[in-house]
Design a protein that fits this description.
By secondary structure, the chain is of the alpha+beta class. About 25% of the residues lie in helices and about 30% in strands. The strands form 3 sheets. Strands 4-5-6-9-8-7 form a 6-stranded antiparallel β-sheet. The longest helix has 15 residues. The radius of gyration is 19 Å and the shape is globular.
Length: about 250
Amino acid sequence: MSDRLAAILPCGGVIPKGAGPLYHRLRLLLEEAILSGKLSHGDVLYPERDLAEHAQVSRVTVRKAIDHLVRDGFLVRRPGSGTFVARSACRVDQPMSRAVLLTEEIFWRGSNTEVEWMERSISHPAPEEMMTLGLSADNRVARFIRLRRSAGLALAIERTCISAEFLPDAVSVTASIYKALEDANVRPVRAIQRIFACNIQEPDASMLGVTIGAAGLLTKRVAYLHSGRAVEFTRSLYRGDADAFVTSFTISEN
């Protein structure tokens, strides 16, 4: 097996146990390889047979992981040619040295934002949440929805989902969700965030006070523990007609 494949997937298994279903763990490794540049735009993916043998999983597991990456736009299938990396991805590493939400470091030019809690509850996970966090339909999640305003104007909707294993009492979280995770000794150490242009639909259009189909910006962030397990899944929807917003990043000397 080539050194390049060994650099993408650890020999003898996908990742340590406890990080969700096998296909989900394999999917995360392949996504990481794309984001880090180990697999570049236009590269052909190794055959399912080779990936399965190297990671010691079934071809069904490999196919399911690839299906999710194709769905999310990381890979593209070309009949008769193979599966290719669909696009290059720009990666920015931000050390999570402080217990704050990323959106707490996003602010609109010339404005101070206020946070309104719309929901704090425990419920069953939706399909995308199950896939992202490696949960089953029998698991339960802590669900948080927050609306950010400035001078009375709704600017963004944030939806955060965390396994109830880590935060069993959603109502008790009244400030930073990351601080609550830190208090529970499950503070994330890294995160991957993807950004999409979108058209805002209901019920979000009504919550943000914009017309249906208005331009918006959608971010999806997944935060991970040291073990590689996904602990937080946050989707943030920003209205596109705000003045501007700025993201503050801290670059570590290490």
